[in-house]
Amino acid sequence: MSVVKLGTVPHRVPDPTHPYTSGAWTPVFDEYDADGLEVIGEIPKDIDGIYVRNGENPAFGSIGLYHPFDGDGMIHTMSFRDGKANYKNRFVRTKGLMAEIEAGKPLWAGIAEDPRLSTRPGWGAHGGIKDSSSTDVVVHAGKILSTFYQCGEGYRLDPYTMEQFGTEGWVPLDGISAHPKLDENTGELLFFNYSTHAPYMHYGVVGPDNKLKHYIPIPVPGPRLPHDMAFTKNYSIIADLPLFWDADILAKGRHAARFHRDIPTRFAIVPRYGQPEDIRWFEAEPTYVLHWMNAWEEGDEIVLDGYFQEDPAPKPLEAPGGDPRLGQLMAYLDENSFKPKLHRWRFNLKTGAVSESHLDDRLLEFGSFNQMYGGEKSRYLYSTFTKPGWFLFEGLVKHDFETGKSETLNFGEGRFGSEAPFAPRVGARSEDDGYIVSFITDMVENRSECVLIDAQNIADGPVCRIILPHRISSGTHACWADGPTVRAAQSAA
Questions:
Q1: How far apart, in Å, are the Cα atoms of 213 and each of 100, 178, 280?
Q2: What span, in angstroms and rounded, lies between the C-alpha atoms of 51 and 449?
Q3: Per-residue pLDDT tens over the stretch 343-363
Q4: Which of 15, 155, 279, 323 has its Cβ near the most Cβ atoms within 10 Å?
Q5: Which residues, in sequence order, are bridge partners of residue 316?
Q6: How far apart are CA 17 and CA 232, in angstroms?
Q7: CA distance 465 to 224
């Protein structure tokens, strides 16, 4: 066993009374390189790649009410090869974090506060909002790209060494959205962004050589607040959702989202390298969708899966201390409040017709699928479900769209997972021939572990559990990167 504690990043002691800086969400400040860790079970030899998770891990918090989306980005990786595993974690050295380390205190107001309380100009796309690069993560062209949900600059790291390279050079002035999409079959990275000034939204394509190939405006009526996108083999799908900033409050410099129930959800279907005049618009039932899953072309139709929210504007929960703003924050993080359900949309490119329906009536979100099937018809999907009242993943549901059956795995009492991507087995022979990978924060054992779950038998639980050198904060988005693909890209660079 080799566990090297590289150091402790300067920080402020987290608030033990705040629900998202305590318990399973308690941030960590130590950075490690570790291998030869304790393993319960045996690490399979037929897995080769890197599990990468981003997460909100505040070093200094924020001025005023802290929202978990304010937290600084911390990347955790577990790389697998030849039956061995190596763990590393690093804060993303954003401009904002480095400025706060130098000052020894928070310099930005949280997103739940008036941004005019910030004492420094913002970095990223939206003025006084700090770009913490803490939302999503993808591995493209041999490097990690960490992103921020309010369209930040994008930060690059080496997935094996965690060396940091600063902001990404091709990112436009209006930033990059939280969820760029990697087409693993072409190596292209598809992205969008949004802003408070015209033309309000853009869409772009970055080639496998990490150079910007295409960038166009997407015409929308005003500032919008989409969170994700999807793609097929030939098209990209950008949503104009009826939850966006209140115009009157925005004019005063504050960002307050409102759900406009009388406005339909609109979908822009864009040929991958199309122009604005090539966009086809479709209208559907009003909702908000945090995350889309796969999409594909089927005859004259485009099929899109995602998580339809039945109540995008939930009532506040009862918060510690009775703070109504904290109660509202908690409701918007609680799936049991905004009620997301797995949903399917069909867009007929010939007739313009739209049809849609739920695929499951359970409350589910933060799904994954075999990314080698991205843009093509896929059979399996793996969704998470959460602890009532909390932003904590309690388990997984596997859907088989061919048979209509599903299978469930609960992580166990006091055990909370991270987003759990699919990792194909080396030499995989079918779509679900591989593993589901996740970090688990175990509040009973007071530790964290990385688990591998046989995707063909998720109800059997982990085939192995790798014990981390520290208990990490609960977190959200993650990805899987194929080892040979990453190494080939790094060799070619």
A1: 35, 19, 21
A2: 13
A3: 999 999 999 999 999 999 999
A4: 155
A5: none
A6: 45
A7: 42
Angle at 372 between CA 370 and CA 374, to 5 degrees: 80
Distance CA 92, CA 199 (A): 30
Residue 442 carries which side chain, given as an amino acid letter?
Answer: D
For 116, counting Cβ atoms within 10 Å of its Cβ (0-12 exposed, 13-18 middle, 19+ buried), the class is exposed
Q: How many residues does the chain have?
A: 493
Taking CB atoms within 8 Å and a gap of at least 24, the contacts of 114-119 are 114/64, 114/253, 114/254, 115/253, 115/254, 115/255, 116/253, 117/63, 117/64, 118/63, 119/63
Mean pLDDT of the chain: 95
Q: Tell me, what amino acid is at 116? A: R
Q: Which of 388, 265, 414 is nearest to 331 (CA)?
A: 388
Give the pLDDT of residue 121: 62
| Residue 260: both structure tokens together | 């406009």
pLDDT the model gives residue 493: 79
Q: Where are the beta strands (DSSP E) in 42-200?
A: 49-53, 74-81, 84-91, 136-140, 143-147, 155-157, 164-167, 181-183, 188-194
Instruction: Return the residue matching tokens 């040979």.
Output: 484
pLDDT in the model for residue 15:
94
The DSSP element (H or E) to which 235 belongs, if any, is: strand 235-240
| Lookup: tokens for 50 | 């890197």
Q: Which of 149-153, 319-323, 357-361, 468-472 has the lowest mean pLDDT?
A: 319-323
Q: Global pTM?
A: 0.96
Quote the strand ranges of 9-53, DSSP E. Answer: 30-35, 39-41, 49-53
Rg of the chain over Cα atoms, rounded to whole angstroms, equals 21
